[in-house]
Amino acid sequence: MKMTDQLSELSELPDTAQTSGTVQDEAQTKHWKEKQPGFTHFDSNGNALMVDVSEKADTVREALATGSIQVSDEVYQAVASGKVKKGDVLSIAAAAGIMGAKRTSELIPMCHILPLTGCRVWFEMEPQQKKIRCFCEVKITGKTGVEMEALTGVSTALLTIYDMCKAMDKSMEIGEIYLRRKTGGRSGEVLNHH
Amino acid sequence: MKMTDQLSELSELPDTAQTSGTVQDEAQTKHWKEKQPGFTHFDSNGNALMVDVSEKADTVREALATGSIQVSDEVYQAVASGKVKKGDVLSIAAAAGIMGAKRTSELIPMCHILPLTGCRVWFEMEPQQKKIRCFCEVKITGKTGVEMEALTGVSTALLTIYDMCKAMDKSMEIGEIYLRRKTGGRSGEVLNHH
Amino acid sequence: MKMTDQLSELSELPDTAQTSGTVQDEAQTKHWKEKQPGFTHFDSNGNALMVDVSEKADTVREALATGSIQVSDEVYQAVASGKVKKGDVLSIAAAAGIMGAKRTSELIPMCHILPLTGCRVWFEMEPQQKKIRCFCEVKITGKTGVEMEALTGVSTALLTIYDMCKAMDKSMEIGEIYLRRKTGGRSGEVLNHH
Amino acid sequence: MKMTDQLSELSELPDTAQTSGTVQDEAQTKHWKEKQPGFTHFDSNGNALMVDVSEKADTVREALATGSIQVSDEVYQAVASGKVKKGDVLSIAAAAGIMGAKRTSELIPMCHILPLTGCRVWFEMEPQQKKIRCFCEVKITGKTGVEMEALTGVSTALLTIYDMCKAMDKSMEIGEIYLRRKTGGRSGEVLNHH
Amino acid sequence: MKMTDQLSELSELPDTAQTSGTVQDEAQTKHWKEKQPGFTHFDSNGNALMVDVSEKADTVREALATGSIQVSDEVYQAVASGKVKKGDVLSIAAAAGIMGAKRTSELIPMCHILPLTGCRVWFEMEPQQKKIRCFCEVKITGKTGVEMEALTGVSTALLTIYDMCKAMDKSMEIGEIYLRRKTGGRSGEVLNHH
Amino acid sequence: MKMTDQLSELSELPDTAQTSGTVQDEAQTKHWKEKQPGFTHFDSNGNALMVDVSEKADTVREALATGSIQVSDEVYQAVASGKVKKGDVLSIAAAAGIMGAKRTSELIPMCHILPLTGCRVWFEMEPQQKKIRCFCEVKITGKTGVEMEALTGVSTALLTIYDMCKAMDKSMEIGEIYLRRKTGGRSGEVLNHH
Q: What is the DSSP letter of E172?
């Protein structure tokens, strides 16, 4: 912020802040409201912040994210057969995806801690393209959305498949990770189909 | 439980006798060696495992992973301008990527805990394609490779960019995540260029 | 979400080997409802999931779990005397138990993240049996119960006692871990006494 | 829970050295109420506990904490110039502070898991004293306050500055960490200015 | 460090109520050596500590721990059938056990951070007793043993089974958790069979 | 890796806005060596990094950090009496400090994951100043120092005291946190006494 603002703002702080001194009130209130054009995760001074959602209502929110991993024939067959043989890559990857979704707020600096009310991960095999497609659906009754949780769940599940198959193939590629559907909250429903 | 029960019970195991003599030694050693065709993360009974690397030598190993995020014009400009303005999305994403790489073993079930000796994350802006490309390079002196750490670092950094820009664009796509280079260890050097 | 929304959304999914067309639509919509007989943590396709509790009411819930560790005379005396001497094993074990209860959702794949509203751990010395019995009581105002938190608190506290005493005795046994009492929620009150 | 339930349930407990019969019933029922004079984090038996806040109302609560790091001229100039040069220590420290605030309940044994609704960290440069002053403001709508989160955010941000500058100066000192302001909750507003 | 250094350094400490002058010097220098009878996790002042193993040699160490969960007929059948049906409780429990073993140092206050070189979890079904027995084997090349990791892996795996089956049975009991075998390190081989 | 490898590998990189052709090759190869004046945690492009210590020797390293908390008379008496009464604030704070030291690499973005070989926390009561002084000593045999671990241990222990006493006093101040002694490694011995 401009030094002058800061000095005036600071000279107010002693018996502080937040409550007395209009100059500072503005300074403070601007902090949480006014943002850089486009960004919600920086205040007017460019300080990164976890967006204040204190006033937002608790509503039911859902997000569905997707992503895929492109693998070799050998890997594809090995994973596909896992469903019938012992040693199921996908059930471990699904568990890892759900656990990853729960840890989103630890991984993504500005994400809120969200007590998810539901999460599931599932896969679809695409034999033609030799792809394994992952879906992660997350639900919450809360003040902010769960799209980052769904995207993190997908990423973690796909990385887990990569890890368990990398001895067979070191050129796998993870991609097509995006938000498929989002409902609840101010922004209403979002539907993507890439 | 009673010894007799156990012996009888154990003798049911596919040639394993847990408690007695050479029979068990074989059973045990097979557990860690013999795998399902292709898989290194399952033993001969289909139990997932963290691969035993106790006997492997400590060597210097490196991995470089890459990935990208496709964004809108608006996001691209906002992020690109961050380098000169206050509020730098990429410096926070780089920090998140490094922190994510350090937590790989918590996220990926069968990954070893690896005391990384170096990690860095950097980005390249691709104005034509409106992509931000991320690179994560990880080093270790250890018994096993760090490709999962590099891939996790890339994924976390890209998810962080997504999070900080999602108010502007809900159709961003993360992709092209793969291992670019790997050196050290038995498998020697690996080079990919997708 | 409204069924119709999901059906329309899902019908956009590309056909795949595993699920295709309307068959899948049904499979998908059933995911959160219909379970394998007995299991609540698998959907109708056998995918593990974190159970959806979005619709459940926030009620006050409590759980009390117990467990014990059987130790040698030497350990028993050393721990018992800790209360009066400097170096109190049990106060550290109690703290570890409370911290462990708070981390249940990180350890148990399908557990919800629950902002516990209260947790305490205490011990009872059983001189005849040379046992230290642990209790962990957890409270929450939420949509799902806290029995896993109470059981994880007990397990972590007992493991901590084991760790701090293992130099004296390597044959200690942890056991008798079960849910003693559970109140609140649909299943009403549960009382066990093994 | 209803007192009578607890009494009946507890009276089933086997007699033990530490607690027996009705004496214990009382001890137990008093556990959550009566505390050692002054302490809220110990029950009447001296067992540490996470305070029971189940009955407390959800109110909007805020806390502002502050702290500083005293550095050398060289460090001060290097950090101050970071705002204009590439490589911004403070933006990484701010992100670390926010992430640290989110992990308070993992670090401080008796802290509740709190889904923070907002958090921001900012710095003020004090050229005369060669100090960097850190502020962390945390918000929540919940049953208990967030002063520990704010203090942990400040501590983590200052430690991060220390880490990134320690190659230049090994005699930096972190201090003046205290609660500047606290609003919401039973204790009403708290204002400190040291 | 050299003793003389420490003495000189410590003699600079301001006198204090708790420790003063040469008395303290001795107390300090004894800290890492002399322990309370029996305890290795407390210094001579009763301060808990993570035992100093800096001087110990890196050797290959293994630990095998076991434990069981007693379940109802219904649960036993449901879990046993999981191997052939979709939805495998045990493969998720095994993954959770391995992940839990990796997090031992976060859960058990005085445990060292150990970069495990191998870990696996497997189960044995005991149809007569309606028990599921869990084994966790951990390996490391390091300065201290991994029995706590093996015991934590077993506990986490059994808690995961409990969680996934608790809708069917709320009276399951986890027990018989002990160290089955330990090799490597000063204490040589340990074998238990309860 | 061999420079030539890297150059050839990097020259394959697509031209980009930020870096192109041989310019970038140099930029890349300089990344790990050349730093901004003073900073070790930024490369020549201003990207934060975890410093590469792969080539450094494993040596025994120690760090001793200190810090204090200024409390009220009431708090001071309550804490001091804890040593004799049940409910020991300091034993819990010491455990929290050790656990915090172990988690330094999760909290401080550019800190290495370090398998500490020893850690202890102790306190000194200063009756005149109504201060509780904390010390944390950390040891490792490794490639980089542990001063951040010692400082994080002190900070966490002091925050834990604050938390357990805050019901009595909301104006406590944590300060005087600095590195007291550091041995091992290139920088040799460091001794501070503020």
A: -
